[in-house]
Amino acid sequence: MPRMLSELLKEPKIALLHRVVKIVGPKISWQLLRETLRLEKDGGQSVDAAANSRPELLFVLDEGSRDCKLRRRTAGGVFFTLLKEKVSKETYRTIYEVEDRKKKEAKKRARGRHRQRMDKTLAALRFDDLTLAAQSANFGVPSVDEAQTCVTTSADSEVTAMTEDGEVVEYIAGQLRKCSDRNVGGSDMAR
């Protein structure tokens, strides 16, 4: 039955439909399917504008008339919207438990990938040589006046137009190292 629902609704999430049939039962599933097909025959169901936080997703450009029209739900979307109205919150959460877990894991993986990219970028810029947190007696952390002096002297002395990406990164890293060394008293801390 879930495969038949998937074909009729053109819904790719067969496992989700399988959980619907298993938890809600085939009788309610058939009722929801009949209601969905009736709604689709009458013109479909538009996306709820009040619940959507991204208004740019509410409208779609019609290819033929080049008009903006309200976006319609897919047949599967209509089915799941009707399901949400028909069953209790607890049952609905049980059905979507696996989907929610997959979403959370995907977000966690994306955050990890983003963090790795940022770490890689920072390592390429060699920011690990700098101390950004204040240590005991502000050792290694320039004061506001020292930092201002460092920035103005480096900006005045070596302003060159660099065209290649590697040169710009090396230039910035070199200036930061000079500033760091000057403020620490010429000693290398992290090397």
Automatic annotation (TrEMBL):
It comes from Hyaloperonospora arabidopsidis (strain Emoy2) (Downy mildew agent). Belongs to the PHAX family. This is Phosphorylated adapter RNA export protein. GO terms for cellular component: cytoplasm; nucleus. GO terms for biological process: protein transport; snRNA export from nucleus. It is found in: Cytoplasm; Nucleus. Residues 5-48, 70-99 form the Phosphorylated adapter RNA export protein RNA-binding domain. Pfam families: PHAX_RNA-bd. Keywords: Cytoplasm, Nucleus, Protein transport, RNA-binding, Transport. The keyword Protein transport applies. The lineage of its organism: Eukaryota, Sar, Stramenopiles, Oomycota, Peronosporomycetes. Its main location: cytoplasm. The keyword Protein transport applies. One of its GO terms (molecular function) is RNA binding.
